Amino acid sequence: MDYVLATSRPWNEIMARRLEEKTGHTFHLITGKEELTPERLADIAPRYVFFPHWSHIIPEAVHTAYECVVFHMTDLPYGRGGSPLQNLIQRGHHETQLTALRCVAELDAGPVYMKRPLCLEGAASEIFLRAAGEIESMIEAIIREEPEPQAQEGETVNFRRRTPGESDLAQAPIQDLNDFFDFIRMLDAEGYPRAFLELHGHRMELSRVQLEQDRLVGTFVIHRQHAIPDKNGGGIKMLLDRCYPKPPRDVFERMQGLYKPGDPLYTVEHEGQAVGMVYCAHHSKGGHLENLAVDPDYRGLGLADKLVETLMQDNPEVITLTTRIPAYFERFGFKAVEQLTDQSVFMAAKSPASTAIGTNTATASGNQQP
């Protein structure tokens, strides 16, 4: 029998191999959104598609054609929605139920296969590893017993997905040392924006916190605030404000929250003013093109084309993006992966091998900012 294990977190990737050893069945691992397609699943013909930790919307064409099992870290229907671990800890929970449910169109609303208790002590990374062990056991039980999922019962409580800016300790609802401890530990896992403080143009990120009587002991890292290289003193922000003039003008703020040193960021300048830019948020599987902007007064000159071409040639990896103009990006080799609920399209492309286009130096149309 064949099964699929789809996960967007590295700590779950070894689970497929362990499950094969324990069950004697074949498990196909999917780690990227672009891999989860009806065509790929049709080739596999899985009995179940398990999602131990998946950060993307599961396409309707997938969950209606296959029995998709998702795992949610709350006692559903309590806690439907995003950031369940952080929402639980901020609400004072020390334990929860790990729920295995069938995926349906409504978020976290499907019928339930089973629940298992889960302790919420320790750092987020520890809790996720603990949850992974329970999920592995639940998958074995579902394969063995093939239970019929039952409708959720009880009052529905919805959680809101947190934003990167909400990791700011200065803005957090902190009253005592225990609150500091909980806030830092609940964000301490790979792929999550760690708790931070911004002081004197720098950001301090905190992790590995321990509560010792009347003090906290942990690890901190300090780097230049946001680290977005912008030698013109706000030139990128001014460009984005010109390109997105209607409120809410939060495009630059989102970019600040995502940017990490080394992310591909290219600008086009004219007479000392940024008139075009492209930004790609790098991650372990490649990168996601987050921003492509050209000043309205400089459109029609091919600047956007040059920016995308430079990004693709300098960064030989899988690049994804979300857009409402898919035809434009098809010219650069992007292919549609999924139609999203807001009518935008998720696309992906494999960049060509690097060429001597000027990495870390001036290009024909702009500069890469290292």
Descriptive account of the structure:
- It comes from Thiohalospira halophila DSM 15071.
- Keywords: Transferase.
- It is a single chain.
- By secondary structure, this protein is an alpha/beta fold.
- 25% of the residues lie in helices and 31% in strands.
- The chain has 3 domains: 2-159, Rossmann fold (3-Layer(aba) Sandwich), CATH 3.40.50.170; 164-224, Methionyl-tRNA Fmet Formyltransferase, Chain A, domain 2, CATH 3.10.25.20; 247-368, Gcn5-related N-acetyltransferase (GNAT) (Aminopeptidase, 3-Layer(aba) Sandwich).
- The strands form 4 sheets. It has a 7-stranded mixed β-sheet with strand order 16-17-15-14-13-12-18, sandwiched between helices. A 6-stranded mixed β-sheet has the order 2-1-3-4-6-7, with helices on one face.
- Helix 1 runs parallel beside helix 5 (124-145).
- It is globular.
- The model is unreliable at 353-370 (pLDDT under 50).
Q: CATH H-level name of the largest domain... which superfamily? A: Formyl transferase, N-terminal domain
Count of alpha/pi helices: 10
Strand content: 25-35%
Fill in the CATH topology of the largest domain: Rossmann fold
Sheet having the most strands: 7 strands, mixed
SS-derived structural category: alpha/beta
Question: What is the number of beta strands?
Answer: 18
Main β-sheet, spatial strand arrangement = 16-17-15-14-13-12-18
Count of domain modules? 3
**What is the overall pLDDT average?**
86
The poorly predicted ranges are 353-370
CATH architecture tag of the largest domain: 3-Layer(aba) Sandwich
The shape is globular
Give me the strand/helix succession.
EHEHEHEEHEEHEHEEEHHEEEHEHEEE
Percent helix, as a range, is: 10-25%
Terminal residue distance: 48 Å
Computed CA radius of gyration, to the nearest angstrom: 23 Å
CATH class of the largest domain: Alpha Beta
Keywords: Transferase
GO molecular function: acyltransferase activity, transferring groups other than amino-acyl groups
Organism: Thiohalospira halophila DSM 15071
Domain N-acetyltransferase: 221-352
